[in-house]
Amino acid sequence: MPHEARIFVKTGLIYLTLTFALGGVLLILEALGRPAPEAFALQHAHFGAVGWLVNIVIGSRYGYCRSIESVFPQPEADFQLVSCTRASACSTGASRYD
Prior knowledge:
98 residues; mainly alpha
């Protein structure tokens, strides 16, 4: 797994730990009958959804794509780009054979 992917996964695991810790604080406050600040609940959701989930998804996907790329290298594109603004007027982009 590439270094960048490992950083994303490790950051995701740190956010997962923070999510569990903040969830524990919220649980303890609820058990004591004290109202938890609204910011705690929002931060708990943010750490879980954005911090943990997004970092794990990006890190694992990046690591997977990089490992597949090393096994199956992508060939160089051998086609022209065509841009059409209207059906009757199309222009082709420059190709490496022009």
